Amino acid sequence: MLTLKGKDIYLRALEPEDLDFVHAIENHESVWEISNTQTPYSRFLIKQYLENAHKDIFEVKQLRLVISNYNDIALGMIDLFDFDFKNSRAGVGILIKETSERQKGVGNEALGLLIKYCNTHLNLHQLYCNISEDNQASLNLFSKHGFEIIGLKKDWNLVNGSYKNEYLLQRIN
């Protein structure tokens, strides 16, 4: 099992026991904008996903890790997606499930651990992320870790009947 340890949290691989946690996140409408989700996911589909979560990033082109505290409470998830070995890059996404756990440094520590993992184990040249123009907390978080805004995608996402702009951020080693 992959374990990346920090001061207050660690990142770990998904486990079958994470079914309820992942199901709750994927079906919470407040995060659908971030994940670009349109419909709920069944427990059956998430169980199938978890059964295949052990597959190698080189095969499935993504890696999803659970952000956990040292009391073994799952706080959120952090993802690498669109993994491109040839061009040495990947996208990054992060979500802290409970709003009460946000703005406490959990995301900051998790992103730092993931960047270190990408540099040390995957030898990635660049990471990128997509952040809604009005998501100041995420813009601050990623900027703190060396991500720079390189573009604005106008009217990119339709959210509750209105189009929203989205920034593209990039971090090059």
Automatic annotation (TrEMBL):
Keywords attached to this Swiss-Prot or TrEMBL record, sorted alphabetically, are: Transferase
Q: Name one Pfam family in it.
A: Acetyltransf_3
Q: Which terms does the record give in the GO molecular function aspect? A: acyltransferase activity, transferring groups other than amino-acyl groups
Which domain of life does this protein belong to? Bacteria
Q: Which PROSITE patterns match?
A: GNAT (PS51186)
Record domain N-acetyltransferase: where: 9-170
Tell me the InterPro entries matching this sequence: Acyl_CoA_acyltransferase, GNAT_dom
Q: Which PANTHER family match?
A: GNAT-FAMILY ACETYLTRANSFERASE, SPERMIDINE N(1)-ACETYLTRANSFERASE
Q: What is this protein called?
A: Acetyltransferase
